[in-house]
Design goal:
Order of helices and strands of chain A: HHEHEHEHEEEHHHEHEHEEHHHHH
Shape of chain B: globular
Low-confidence stretches of chain B: none
CATH class of the largest domain in chain A: Alpha Beta
Radius of gyration of chain B: 23 Å
Distance between the termini of chain A: 71 Å
CATH architecture of the largest domain in chain A: 3-Layer(aba) Sandwich
Oligomer: heterodimer
CATH superfamily of chain B: MetI-like
Strand content of chain B: under 5%
CATH superfamily of the largest domain in chain A: Periplasmic binding protein-like II
Structural class of chain A: alpha/beta
CATH architecture of chain B: Orthogonal Bundle
Mean pLDDT of chain B: 88
Radius of gyration of chain A: 23 Å
Largest interface: A-B, 36 and 32 residues
Number of domains of chain B: 1
Distance between the termini of chain B: 32 Å
CATH topology of chain B: MetI-like fold
Helix content of chain B: over 70%
Shape of chain A: globular
Number of domains of chain A: 2
Strand content of chain A: 15-25%
Number of strands of chain B: 2
Number of helices of chain B: 13
Mean pLDDT of chain A: 87
CATH class of chain B: Mainly Alpha
Largest sheet of chain A: 10 strands, mixed
Structural class of chain B: mainly alpha
Chain lengths: 362, 285
């Protein structure tokens, strides 16, 4: 830069030349971008902002496909909109980030266009939990983002980190815990099954579920706060008001880095791994672009970038990624995760919800 | 001035605007809710138009009866607390100079500008062990060590009364300002103490206003769903909390609608009962 400034070319000529060069370089890609575009639904707020800032511009630069990102509401409102639009042959977004339960619900109406795995370069390197399949084996969705819910504690109140989810049941922790308030977002049935019943397969039968509920009832006297709002628990955890509970691994890590006396621990039974999939609406006519997009997002470099910049756990096997041990630990763990039994929240949702509400309210 | 009864159809025209507003913003949404409450829930999906009673059947259980009972009890208690605090407060307020009244009113109105979320979080901090009011009491030597006052029933009640009190005072204020001061003066002349004059003259003269205020605060408190969540334990969650859970988190619109319809019906019944009881007493008196 300094050299250019010191050279004998006049400033005006320099500016003119630069403008022409930028024009020449950018024109074709603008045209291409207009030719090829993709509407991508992303959870509104933090995820959309991070993707817009860190991921989508690079994707457009690499592929020439312009991305129009759409903020989608979490929960199932977006699924309802996609479903109704698809019936009318419209796709409000071509590719959307969908929760696992929403993926299953969409499968029941064939909402998701099958994905051609031959066109996803790193398909074989994806961790198995990040491939969402129709019962007949067609692929409905590919992992987009994943995050962990772990055992968190206040370091002032607990100088030693807890090691197991069983700490939640410890009578010494009476009235000290903050847990998520809903059966379908706390995943405590799975935690109970993994910790005390040998694994989440124990929840296959109604008998097993009842046993898990019974065991879970024992945790009630220890719970001070059943929270729906994250801010509520995070504040109480930082101040030590509620010194232990379940919370998001990445956010707890950020709070600890800011100097708050908190820590996130992967219990020996594993953290709870929740995730969202990329899924393509059957009403979309951007099948080609959607495959390019999903292929791009599933590359090791992009997954590493997501971990570093957005804080999500990678969907690919660890050895492919160039994440340092520290970077990896800030978003994930080598301990086998507890994968929620999403199928139960589809087939038995009302029964589970009723039992759960009676358990914690009653 | 004598008002003439409407003669022609056009005389009813001024009624059209409120009627349209009522239909668009109340009758249609409420009608939609009633019809959805009879729809068939598709578990793992959404709902399909139908005419089934299963949503109401699910509601008719001891569990939901308890939750409904608690919600009604909480709303009644909030209404009573607000009136017990609000009537003497407003009465004293009307005795102040105009300037002082304006300052009080501005302060009260500013409370109305706070959202339920802010009120909830502010009280949860005030009631906390680490930063709450008990630390102040410890500093003053009144308490041994700081304790947490939330979550719990008193915390929920306090915050809900705090939220509803400005409305209570705003409703009571006009009636109390217009109250003839000669009534109390007469009572005092006849030898009643100020307290006795207040209870035997002011309160009975305001019976209709107090009843209307009770009903308003009751209905206002019945809809609260954030404060019980932020400041209460699960057993202090109102029916409104469970309706929100069903509608937003379970996407079970038919069941949420059925619960909401039930809540509206019970509310209307309670209001009717209160009005009926009030009228009966009036005619007996």
């Amino acid at each position: 830069m300094r050299k250019i400034l010191n050279s004998s070319i006049s400033r005006r000529a320099m500016l003119g030349g630069t403008a022409a060069a930028i024009g020449a370089l950018s024109m074709p890609s603008i045209l291409r971008a207009q030719d090829r575009s993709l509407k991508v639904g992303v959870y509104g707020g933090y995820f959309k902002d991070s993707f817009d800032k860190n991921i989508f511009p690079d994707f457009t630069a690499a592929t020439g496909i312009a991305v129009e990102s759409i903020a989608e509401p979490t929960g199932e409102a977006w699924l309802v909109q996609l479903e109704q639009a698809a019936r009318a042959g419209v796709a409000p977004a071509d590719v959307s980030m969908m929760s696992q339960v929403a993926m299953l619900k969409g499968q029941s109406t064939e909402l998701w266009a099958p994905i051609d795995t031959a066109r996803i370069g790193n398909y074989d390197d994806l961790l198995p939990q990040f491939v969402n399949k129709y019962p007949d084996g067609r692929v409905a969705g590919i992992g987009a983002v994943a995050w962990y819910i772990t055992l968190v504690s206040n370091t002032d109140a607990y100088p030693e980190a807890p090691e197991s989810w069983a700490s939640l049941w410890d009578p010494a922790n009476a009235d000290k815990l903050g847990l998520l308030a809903l059966v379908s977002n706390s995943f405590l049935l799975e935690v109970t099954a993994k910790t005390f019943m040998g694994g989440t397969d124990a929840l296959d039968t109604e008998e097993g579920l009842n046993k898990a509920f019974e065991k879970l009832a024992e945790v009630k006297p220890n719970v001070r706060l059943w929270y729906r709002d994250e801010a509520q628990f995070e504040q109480a955890l930082k101040s030590g008001e509620i010194p232990m509970g379940q919370y998001y691994h990445d956010v707890t890590g950020l709070a600890a880095a800011d100097g708050h006396p908190v820590r996130s621990t992967f219990p020996k039974e594993g953290g709870i791994q929740d995730s969202g999939c990329w899924a393509l609406s059957r009403a979309s006519d951007k099948v080609e672009e959607a495959h390019v997009f999903i292929d791009y997002m599933s590359q090791p470099e992009i997954q590493a970038a997501l971990s570093r910049k957005v804080g999500t756990a990678p969907t690919l096997k660890r050895d492919l990624l160039d994440l340092t041990a520290e970077e990896f630990a800030s978003v994930s763990s080598d301990i086998v995760p507890i994968i929620p039994r999403y199928d139960l929240y589809q087939t038995k949702s009302d029964w589970l919800n009723q039992k759960w509400t009676e358990l914690i309210v009653g | 001035m004598r008002r003439e009864a409407p003669q022609k159809l056009t005389d009813y025209a001024p009624l059209a605007f409120p009627a349209i507003m009522l239909v668009v913003f109340f009758v249609i949404p409420f009608g939609t809710m009633i019809s959805v409450s009879f729809f068939q829930r598709q578990q793992g999906g959404f709902y399909t138009p139908a005419f089934v009673f299963s949503n109401y059947e699910r509601f008719l259980s001891l569990f939901f009866a308890n939750v409904l009972g608690f919600s009604l009890m909480l709303a009644v208690l909030v209404a009573i607390c607000c009136v017990v605090i609000g009537v003497p407060f407003t009465y004293l307020l009307t005795r102040l100079t105009r300037r002082a009244q304006i300052i009080w009113m501005v302060a009260l109105l500013s409370v109305l500008s706070l959202s339920e979320v802010i009120i909830g979080f502010a009280w949860s901090t005030l009631f906390s062990r680490t930063a709450g009011i008990t630390n102040l009491l410890v500093a003053l030597g009144l308490m041994e060590k700081a304790v947490a006052l939330s979550p719990g029933f008193p915390a929920v009640l306090t915050a809900m009364v705090y939220q509803a009190l400005p409305y209570t005072i705003l409703v009571l204020y006009p009636a109390l300002v217009r109250l003839d001061p000669t009534l109390t003066e007469a009572a005092r002349t006849l030898g009643a103490s100020p307290l006795r004059a207040f209870f035997t003259v002011v309160v009975p003269a305001l019976r209709a206003t107090i009843l209307a205020t009770l009903i308003m605060v009751f209905i206002f408190a019945l809809g609260s769903y954030l404060l019980p969540q932020i400041l209460g334990r699960p057993q202090h969650w109102t029916l409104s909390v469970l309706i929100t859970d069903q509608a937003i988190y379970q996407s079970n619109m038919p069941f949420a609608a059925a619960m909401a319809v039930f809540l509206v019906l019970v509310t209307l019944a309670m209001v009717a009962l209160t009005l009926f009881a009030g009228r009966k007493r009036e005619s007996a008196a």
